Amino acid sequence: MIVAMQEGASEDQIQKVIERLVNMGFEVHRSTGTLQTVLGAVGARSDFDIRDIEVISGVAEVHRISAPYKLAGRSFRPEGTVIKFKNGVTLGGNQVHVMAGPCSVESRAQLFAVAEAVQRSGATFLRGGAFKPRSSPYSFQGLGLEALKLLREAGDKSGMLVVSEVMEISQIELMAPYVDMYQVGARNMQNFNLLRELGKARKPVLLKRGIAATIEELLLSAEYLMAGGNYEVILCERGIRTFETYTRNTLDISAIPIVHKLSHLPIVADPSHGTGRRDKVSPMGRAAVAAGADAILVEVHNEPEKALSDGAQSLYPEQFARLMDELRMIAPAVGRKLA
Amino acid sequence: MIVAMQEGASEDQIQKVIERLVNMGFEVHRSTGTLQTVLGAVGARSDFDIRDIEVISGVAEVHRISAPYKLAGRSFRPEGTVIKFKNGVTLGGNQVHVMAGPCSVESRAQLFAVAEAVQRSGATFLRGGAFKPRSSPYSFQGLGLEALKLLREAGDKSGMLVVSEVMEISQIELMAPYVDMYQVGARNMQNFNLLRELGKARKPVLLKRGIAATIEELLLSAEYLMAGGNYEVILCERGIRTFETYTRNTLDISAIPIVHKLSHLPIVADPSHGTGRRDKVSPMGRAAVAAGADAILVEVHNEPEKALSDGAQSLYPEQFARLMDELRMIAPAVGRKLA
Amino acid sequence: MIVAMQEGASEDQIQKVIERLVNMGFEVHRSTGTLQTVLGAVGARSDFDIRDIEVISGVAEVHRISAPYKLAGRSFRPEGTVIKFKNGVTLGGNQVHVMAGPCSVESRAQLFAVAEAVQRSGATFLRGGAFKPRSSPYSFQGLGLEALKLLREAGDKSGMLVVSEVMEISQIELMAPYVDMYQVGARNMQNFNLLRELGKARKPVLLKRGIAATIEELLLSAEYLMAGGNYEVILCERGIRTFETYTRNTLDISAIPIVHKLSHLPIVADPSHGTGRRDKVSPMGRAAVAAGADAILVEVHNEPEKALSDGAQSLYPEQFARLMDELRMIAPAVGRKLA
Amino acid sequence: MIVAMQEGASEDQIQKVIERLVNMGFEVHRSTGTLQTVLGAVGARSDFDIRDIEVISGVAEVHRISAPYKLAGRSFRPEGTVIKFKNGVTLGGNQVHVMAGPCSVESRAQLFAVAEAVQRSGATFLRGGAFKPRSSPYSFQGLGLEALKLLREAGDKSGMLVVSEVMEISQIELMAPYVDMYQVGARNMQNFNLLRELGKARKPVLLKRGIAATIEELLLSAEYLMAGGNYEVILCERGIRTFETYTRNTLDISAIPIVHKLSHLPIVADPSHGTGRRDKVSPMGRAAVAAGADAILVEVHNEPEKALSDGAQSLYPEQFARLMDELRMIAPAVGRKLA
Description:
The structure is a homotetramer of 339-residue chains.
Chain A: E1 2-5, H1 11-23, E2 27-32, E3 37-42, H2 51-54, E4 59-63, E5 83-84, E6 90-91, E7 95-101, H3 108-121, E8 125-127, H4 145-158, E9 161-165, H5 170-175, E10 181-184, H6 192-198, E11 205-208, H7 215-227, E12 233-237, H8 255-262, E13 267-269, H9 271-275, H10 278-290, E14 295-299, H11 317-330, E15 337-338
Parallel strand pairs in A: 7-8, 7-14, 7-15, 8-9, 9-10, 10-11, 11-12, 12-13, 13-14
Antiparallel strand pairs in A: 1-3, 1-4, 2-3, 5-6
Helix pairs in contact in A: 3-4, 3-11, 6-7, 10-11
């Protein structure tokens, strides 16, 4: 932490700040110039609140000098994390993966039709929602356990890995036999109770960025998972809220190279939620791979116009097939290969 | 819902949209002008996704014409909701209330010192956190059940009502004997599982606005609680994220008159979280009452510089006393009285 | 400037950064801890781009430790700036002022009717737009010079000072005989060519905050004016863009106490543009005064429903009179008096 | 415009709204359902303020049903606009162009070195700033006319077209002999006086999106230029302000497909300003082309560490060459070819 005292701060004020820093466990370096005194506070703790210093009289500004996360930081594992799944699939390495499926599992027929179609086009992960509490209390809420069983069956049949969203602690156990990766939704990115429990799980977690979260906050949530012992964390950019109203969210493509710089964890982009409109999904999916994403997550539905949720952002199977072809051309431009 | 077709949309395109709307259960009114056809769709459902229509070919724009909430809307109870607490205190009426206390309950001595001070200055509700999962996994996490017992005891001793935050479903039962009102934090505003369970509780709920939530989204979360049968909902503006970095959040004072117009529910402002800095709490607390808030929620600590959380935004007891005096002068300007 | 090197940065990397800082004219203090080296760079220049250091290899983070403005900062004039107008009116002192008038000057009859009404209720400044280039090229564009003459005449007749918006350099001279204060609109807050010329003017300037500007950026624009020699700068909060769509903008009331802390310049709030809706103007005007604003700026129209611009946010004269009565009750709560 | 009356609005209220709409020149279609009356107002005008209707008593909600722009809309020229430059270069067609050069023209040697390098790698437009008023009044302000002459000379020598920023009306004439395209910066996107004059110019205009502007606002600014008679408008996405602080701005890649849907005008992306950091420029430049951009605008400097402005976001010539190679691989994935 760096504390810049106000010009003209008194020696007494400076001493009070030093004392406080020492009490907080920091080692303090003082540097007094002609105009201003600056204090450098170095130490092992990262859980302090810089406002505690900011409000002391005579203090002009305070800055952290270290990231508030450790395990999620690039320097913890400079070579990058590669996550290995049971069937030998690896995420974070040279291959670019595509995770696809319907927003919600609606029926056996629907799920198997979609699964078959996306697998044929090259998807390696099957996604589908089982629990769907929605922003309106009057909407379809998901098939629950039945959906999980169908996902497992469809995944096994098609040779795809299964990913589905976990929304509360009680579902962790329930989902364990059926999924290969837990997904944490944007609204739960800072549900720290849930993150703590998932930190004890022994399965990879796909952690989505909150709609108003900074990348630092996303990495701090990853830190929660990792601090609990689960190092298999995959980050996911799924769109942030901006002033633009034409799209539902604004997919922050720049998050991809930023995460690759700040962290060793793989990063996935979700152009479906990131735009909310079918005709924007393919351009943004291509952009994500061109920017270096390790995977993309795409909603596909065999009959989007009849979908019970998010039909407007689901690709038709033939659109998905075309997108896959485009991605095959783009991946080599970033030195990679579509899985 | 209003559907504006593109200029030059074909009759076939128009018929397809009408058909879809009828299938969704709407009654459709068509109005064809020289340039453009506009369809008005009226019906009882409010849980549709307007994007399902937006993506149909030939459609230019789609707008909802009714709020997606009903029970939380002003027209449901035009005279406004007044919530009565066991000791006769009413919220939403002519009196302006102040809810005060420490961010976290840290010890018996701390809580009782603060409670005694704020009650003496005129506070009618005692607030204090029992469960404190924090954005860093390495920080103080709260005293839990012990904190709840201390809150009850301090509330009873001082004659104040008790409010504390509930963070997961399992805590609803646990907290019931100790609190007079549940608080739902900003991060849980869209934790629909939690809201659904609180809808079955028989205690008032103070629902905080999410940091990037619109007022419509806040009202839709209130709808969740009310749809479950709990009509004693109090809304709370606690600051939204903006580009301004000087304060932690930007307290949206305009949310107060907006909520009063759109909804019948009482609205409270939290200038402590809304600014994150002690010296901004009093000006913003005064502003909230001047704008018509039904209550304000203020963090007070007997020794803020030793607080285990949010000390930087906690008032000293003497600052709080001065604020109360200022509020006594302002309330009459809006035709009200400090409780 | 503080430069935190990455953990494990090499001595060579550290030396390159020091060299660069010295070349930029800084005096460098080095502090090497067990984990990390931190460099403090102190100097008189404030016009550097911290990204020039951020991109050097081995650098983890860079922070400014001094505000990029000097003249506009509180420490330049700790006692605060009080601006004296020709008729003895002072802004920034103990009195709270109200500036009122129509959005656009539309006709002699309209302006004089409004001027008479607002003066009777206690306004001390008359506002009115002469040049109105609008976001649609097809809208009313203002009366220009004729409006300025009418404003002067109405101001003189009623004993009010005149304020009107200047939009380009060529208007500075043109407006000089007619106005007592130039207003710079939100869209021109960073029109540095205009600011530089206004810095040479010998009249006060009311500088509005841009809709996406931080307070630091607002102060930096004030610095432009002051660097040119014009120290009579009044800042104006007029609403920022947020995700809330119910209001046109979100009036950031917290900007008032923040400006008072960071700067010595007076701060005015504009609840008319800040909300865009007539029924929100009075609550927000009251809130601004309760938070310590030195003045408020309010649009009033004798027949808002016939206004050529911004009628929806203009108060009726009788609403304005009521607001003035409310402000008279609130000002004493902050130790002030309505002028 | 669509006006939804409140449930229970009186016949008298409805008649008042209809009367007002008719006075505004609209043809009104009324549709009264069991709960609610909805009015459709159709007409040729696009310069109304919907708030004028919103504030009438009994009105629940008002929506525009037509875009406030006409000439800039896709339906004005469904086949898309292709802009032809004097040397036969076309923008908006099958070819993807790259515009490159230094942020500021600093010297003859610098400009020619950069021009030669970017032309060799395949750039077809040379960019460079002549006028550089900066956010700090104490920074380098540009070489002015001398820069323009150097740009022309370097452009002619290398066979590249020249683009440079125009900042005020008086510069339009001055720049005319030297540039092939005017650039309007983000801060001037709503400088309507400047846009009106550029509408009379007979040269293409590259119009940058403001940092907090919606795409609709960008198109409305394009409308200003076109309403003045200049149909050669190229839009430019250059990053918007978001909560993310790691990058200077967030490049909104989704603006590319959105503009292609809503408008017939070509769209360019500026990954240099859009990120503010050299190491993010190439990933975002690739993403822009993958999403369908008609061109990208890139800052390149022969010695970025000595640049007088924006050195931190300027590519080294060899980085630029590599980016061009990557773009050559990506363009075919969207059915295009690098020029």
